[in-house]
Design brief:
Layout: H1 8-22, H2 26-39, H3 44-56, H4 60-73, H5 78-90, H6 94-107, H7 112-124, H8 128-141, H9 146-159, H10 162-175, H11 180-189, H12 196-206, H13 213-229, H14 233-250, H15 255-268, E1 285-289, H16 296-304, E2 309-311, H17 317-329, H18 342-355, E3 365-368, H19 377-383, E4 388-393, H20 396-404, H21 418-438, E5 443-447, H22 448-453, H23 455-465, H24 512-517
Parallel strand pairs: 1-3, 1-4, 2-3, 4-5
Helix pairs in contact: 1-2, 1-3, 2-3, 3-4, 3-5, 4-5, 5-6, 5-7, 6-7, 7-8, 7-9, 8-9, 9-10, 10-11, 11-13, 12-13, 13-14, 15-21, 17-18, 18-19, 20-21
Pfam families: Sulfotransfer_3 (PF13469), TPR_16 (PF13432)
Keywords: TPR repeat, Transferase
InterPro entries: P-loop_NTPase, TPR-like_helical_dom_sf, TPR_rpt, TPST-like
Length: 520
């Protein structure tokens, strides 16, 4: 059946929408596309472009809905299929997503961008071997495909092939000296020094007044690292302060609201929890509860060096279980906690275990170091009474300054202002103190400084708490070959445990606001 014809006005609307999307303005494309679809609801191009607009503004479910409609009419259109695959992946329909993404590469095997889209999704899904293969196919077709080369370098970082990662990022920078992602990833390795010429190149890139704010932030964090590597600490901190100040303007964070939330958590779990139906439920789980940059990746790497433990990193499953329960009840966590029965908590625990079954496919135990675990210790005790919980903490000033130096990929909004950082650390401290008092003997207190000073003694204590037999491999975690999904620490944990990682003493004069507001 031939596609419906459009009126001249609808043709003009479609043209306007295409131009707006090419300029990255889905807001300007949406209304013209709605007019086209009102006149010709089955017009595949309009359905497809409307899906693109929805995807660009973050509505992947609606994007997939409209791209599916277009794909039914043009099932062998690889451009529709690759974009549908991306929308499906973002909306959580991963199996269907990979069918579409793979089909697009079959239909257009010489299109580098389609191989990149497949490789990117595979990498996000932790299918790293196949991801690397797809990305190499993309680069064989187009060696200047910057995103494919950066993503391949990211995989090298995760796998511990640091020299190969550096080489790929350097290739990117040879082609595009102002490429912010490559600079950020080089700086993020932390074990690789940046040169004086690197610092000058980043400074030249920052002189471009047309840079998007997010790009300027990335370059600013990279400049900090390059200047610190040249021991120019005053200039380094100034670059860091400017990058953080700009990033703070781009995100939302309310320290007072967070304090109220922590108060509500403490109040909710101040009431006795129902006796668990099965006290052993969750005995396969080792949860690491900490703020970022507190040594949690090292602790996970130590545990994952044990032959019985899989390291799952910062997985979202616990957050998803609690969020879905909140939606079901029509109340935000923790305001439904006192209404939950033993049966409710057991149901949530079993849901979490079902979602995380993939992490027990090869080894019987696994670690979960989700970044909000420290707020959910009470819920963990109720859902998974058999789980082990490790409170991993570090010197407050060092923790906060380490966060301030880190440009996080997503989800961490308290770290771009020293006052916000102090407030968040104070909330963390009082809540973790509360958990220790509320659940004595169930939350292992692990100091990062003590761990690196007395590694064998602390690792033996840690394994005993987790009811794991001692294994000497845990004493040399840097020799363990495994994927480390936290790229901020992926290079560091592959070095021998060391106690000289503190950075704040060099910047003490600049951290007065932070130190003043921390509760000591």
């Amino acid at each position: 059946m031939s596609p419906p014809s459009l009126s001249p006005a609808a043709g003009q609307w479609l043209s306007e929408a295409g131009k707006a999307l090419s300029q990255g303005r889905p807001d300007l494309a949406e209304q013209p596309l709605k007019r086209v679809l009102a006149e010709a609801p089955g017009f595949a191009n309009a359905q497809f472009l409307y899906g693109i607009a929805c995807q660009m503004r973050g509505d992947s479910h609606t994007a997939a809905e409209y791209m599916r409609k277009a794909s039914r009419q043009r099932p062998d259109d690889p451009n529709i299929l690759t974009n549908l695959g991306g929308a499906l992946y973002d909306s959580g329909a991963t199996e269907e997503a990979f069918v579409c993404l793979r089909r697009a590469t079959e239909l257009a095997p010489l299109q580098a961008s389609f191989w990149f889209n497949l490789g990117k999704a595979l990498k996000l899904h932790w299918q790293l071997d196949e991801a690397a293969g797809a990305l190499r196919r993309a680069l064989n077709l187009d060696e200047r495909h910057i995103s494919a080369r950066n993503t391949l370098a990211d995989i090298f970082t995760i796998r511990g092939n640091i020299a190969e990662a550096v080489a790929e990022y350097r290739k990117v920078l040879a082609m595009q000296p102002d490429q912010a992602h490559a600079w950020q990833c080089l700086a993020n390795l932390k074990t690789e020094s940046l040169t004086l010429e690197d610092a000058k190149q980043i400074q030249r890139a920052l002189q471009n007044r047309q840079l998007a704010p997010e790009v300027r932030v990335s370059l600013g964090f990279s400049l900090y690292k390059a200047l610190e590597d040249q021991h120019q600490y005053g200039e380094a901190f100034q670059a860091l302060r400017e990058a953080n100040a700009l990033k703070r303007q781009l995100i939302q964070w309310d320290a007072a609201a967070e304090r109220i939330h922590i108060d509500a958590v403490m109040d909710a779990f101040g009431h006795p929890l129902p006796t668990p139906l099965d006290p052993s439920l969750g005995q396969e789980v080792i949860l690491i509860a900490s703020l970022p940059r507190s040594g949690s990746t090292l602790v996970e790497h130590i545990l994952a060096s044990h032959p019985l433990v899989e390291g799952a990193n910062e997985i979202p499953d616990l957050s998803q279980v609690l969020d879905e329960e909140s939606k079901r009840r029509g109340k935000d966590f923790p305001h439904w906690v006192t209404d939950a029965t033993a049966e409710d908590w057991a149901r949530l625990g079993k849901d979490y275990l079902a979602r995380t079954a993939r992490w027990r496919a090869k080894r019987p135990y696994f670690t979960d170091k989700g970044l909000q675990n420290w707020q959910w210790v009470g819920a963990i005790r109720a859902m998974l009474p058999g789980a082990r919980i490790i409170d991993c903490h570090r010197d407050p000033v060092e923790t906060c300054f380490a966060c301030y130096r880190q440009l996080f990929s997503e989800g961490i909004h308290f770290s771009y202002d020293l006052g916000d950082l102090a407030s968040c650390y104070n909330d963390y401290q009082r809540l973790t103190d509360y958990w220790q008092q509320r659940y004595p003997g169930h939350v292992f207190d692990l100091s990062y400084e003590t761990l690196v000073r007395e590694p064998e003694a602390q690792i033996r204590r840690l394994l005993a708490f987790c009811q794991l037999p001692f294994d000497a491999a845990c004493l040399s975690p840097h020799q363990t070959q495994r994927d480390v999904h936290s790229t901020a620490s992926a290079a560091q944990v592959r070095q021998p445990i060391r106690g000289d990682t503190a950075r704040s003493p060099r910047y003490r004069d600049f951290l007065a606001q932070l130190i003043q507001h921390l509760d000591h």
